[in-house]
Amino acid sequence: MKMRKRYQRLLWYESCGFLFLIVLTWLDEVLSLPSRIFGGVPHSNWREATLESGIVLAVWLVVSVLTKQLLARLSYVEGFLRICPWCRKVHVEGRWIPVEEYFMRGGFEVKTSFKICPICEENTRAR
């Protein structure tokens, strides 16, 4: 849940950045910023501003779709539970804890015991 909020915040910042570019494009036309900064005759070109806004919106759409796909894939990968194959400890919140402790923390209230599965038992007998 915490990651979902972080991802939504990232998409929000991305959208605000593109909105800022569009506002800057229109402020450029309204205030004639180049003529004020570099001198010259002020003139407005509304067609150019509209075209620039359309290009910024098109880029925003592409970037937004790609960012959402990337975040979905990242969320999927982060959802994996990492378990050490040798000691069977689980990686949780930057620490390695025993499987039993992981189940207790998660509120599963599951007691654990060890037993060899039928396939491994059969393989052991075959040796």
Task: Name a few traits of the molecule.
single chain; mainly alpha; two-stranded antiparallel ribbon; 2 strands
Summarize the structure.
The protein has 127 residues and is mainly alpha-helical. 67% of the residues lie in helices and 6% in strands.
SSE arrangement:
Elements (H helix, E strand, L loop, with lengths): L1 H30 L1 H6 L7 H33 L10 E4 L2 E4 H7 L12 H9 L1
Antiparallel strand pairs: 1-2
Would you mind describing this structure in some detail?
There is one protein chain. The protein is mostly helical and 127 residues long. The protein has 5 helices and 2 strands. The protein is rod-shaped and about 90 Å long. It has 2 domains: 77 residues; 38 residues, no CATH class. Helix 1 runs antiparallel to helix 3. The protein has a two-stranded antiparallel ribbon with strand order 1-2.
| Helical residues, percent | 55-70%
- Give the oligomer, counting copies of the same chain as homo and different chains as hetero: single chain
Widest sheet, order of strands: 1-2
What are the segments in which pLDDT stays under 50 over at least 5 consecutive residues? none
Tell me about the largest β-sheet. Answer: 2 strands, antiparallel
Structural class designation: mainly alpha
Instruction: Count helical runs.
Output: 5
Number of strands: 2
Q: How would you describe the shape?
A: rod-shaped
Q: Strand-and-helix sequence, N→C? A: HHHEEHH
Rg measurement, Å: 28 Å
Q: Domain count, please report it.
A: 2
Per DSSP, what share of the residues sits in E-state strands of 2 or more residues? 5-15%
Mean pLDDT: 83
Amino-to-carboxy terminus distance = 48 Å
